[in-house]
Amino acid sequence: MNVESVTRDGHYSFAVFHRPHIRRASLFLIAALLSLMIIVMAMTLRPESSSEALEEPVAPVVSTFTSIDCDAVGADDKYFQHVVGNMANHQPRRCVTGDRDRRHCKCESPKVSTRNPWDPEWNSVFQRNLKLIQDADQKHWDVLMLGDSLVEHWLGTNNSHFRSKATGHKAWGDIHALYQQYFQATNVTSDHERVVSGLALGIAQDGFSQLLYRLQNGELPVTFKVPILWINIGINDVQYYDCTSDGVVAGVLSVIQQLQEIRKSHDQPTRIVINSLVPLNEQVTQVNERLHCYAQQIPNVDFFDATPLLSIMEGNVSRPNPDLFADTVNLNAQGYKVWGEAIVHRVLHILEEEGL
Questions:
Q1: Which of 42, 99, 216, 232 is spaced 20 to 30 A from 308 at the CA atom?
Q2: 287-328 pLDDT per residue, tens
Q3: Does the entry feature the keyword Cell cycle, yes or no (predicted)?
Q4: Which residues make beta-bridge pairs with 12?
Q5: How far apart are CA 181 and CA 5, in angstroms?
Q6: Per-domain residue ranges for the chain?
Q7: What distance in Å separates the CA atoms of residue 195 and residue 143, rounded to the nearest whole number?
């Protein structure tokens, strides 16, 4: 078969490639080779597993607020001395709607502790938490995590359900597997490796008022020995309960004061770590700024800024990394991997500082 032909202008061409079925086969072969090259490159560059990542030293997380002038943002000594009282006595000041529509403001006084009146299953979840803390009372723990859905999801549940009401089909099993790896592991692979033991007690949709109630009613017994209390609370007060920035700050401060009251007679030193609220909007940024400034002034209180871990920069603007979030405020499994590794390393750093 003659594969060459002469075109009208006198140039040679390969006629075989002008046949449609041969041309299609050639294009298919080229596409297959390109796909194979992409797969090989992806396997070569794939990130290491979470268990391998923990063996490598992790760079300290640089806080977004390290350069904040606390006086400039109004978070000075006088502010923290009066914020709880001001928010307790003036409901309009703690409600975003102010005097206009206080019927829809669910922002409680920072001095008031309440159950969740909108969720009929809340008490059963609270009883679950009490059982968990009772069963753990005589064990060794490095950190106790207290808070809302971000904490509860470590257990693989949402309001004690193993499937999210919001998505119906989505299970939290991958997150619970990470929880067991980071905080419940008992096997130590080498003499120098330290395993962090942690317990998570969270309830989805809780605000500071519900956490106060839980603490005042047995969720942190005075006999429970743990050197680090890690709190993650406030995002629901912003998103659902109509609290102003000052209202949220006052509520978080009341939680800290309650923790200090419970632990004041305890022989073991206790560090309280305030986890930053997830990056959501400017109001959250204001809350985080003030909590950062508060932690700078109070002994044994730290502020852990997760914002750099969970955000991406678009120009000069930071926004939540969509690859790490399941919705506007809840993390997916990859987000928990990033957050969990950072918590573990921060806990280990504190334990080393305390000589524990």
A1: 42
A2: 999 999 999 999 999 999 999 999 987 776 778 999 999 998
A3: no
A4: 6
A5: 68
A6: 77-354
A7: 12
Give me the amino acid identity at 91: Q
Residue 339 half-sphere exposure, CB side, CA atoms within 13 Å? 30
Distance CA 162, CA 109 (A): 32
Nearest-angstrom CA–CA distance, 31 and 19: 19
* Integer Cα distance of 33 and 40 in angstroms: 11
The encoded tokens of residue 35 equal 């796909």
Asked whether the beta carbons of 158 and 165 are under 8 A apart, the reply is yes
Q: What is the dihedral of CA 213, 217, 222, 225, to 10 degrees?
A: -70
Fold for 77-354, please state it. Rossmann fold (3.40.50)
For tokens 């524990």, what's the residue?
356
| pTM to 2 decimal places | 0.79
Question: Hey, what are 243's tokens?
Answer: 């609290």
Closest CA to 310 of 299, 297, 325, 295: 325
Beta bridge partners of 201: 146
Residues 6+ apart with CB under 8 A from 98: 92
Distance CA 300, CA 324 (A): 30
- By the 8 A CB rule, do 198 and 142 touch? yes
Taking the C-alpha atoms of residue 332 and residue 320, their distance in angstroms, rounded to an integer, is 12
Residues in the chain: 356
Instruction: Name beta bridge partners: 28.
Output: none
The packing angle between helices 208-216 and 245-263, to 10°, is: 10
Cβ pair 136, 129 in contact under 8 A: no
Residue 331 DSSP SS3: strand
pLDDT in tens, 3-14: 444 444 444 444
- Residues 6+ away with beta carbon under 8 Å from 3: 14, 15, 16
Please enumerate in sequence order all residues whose Cβ is within 8 A of that of 142, keeping only pairs 6 or more positions apart, or say none. 196, 197, 198, 226, 227, 228, 347, 351, 356
Model confidence pLDDT, tens digit, residues 114-166: 999 888 899 999 999 999 999 998 888 999 999 999 999 999 998 877 654 44
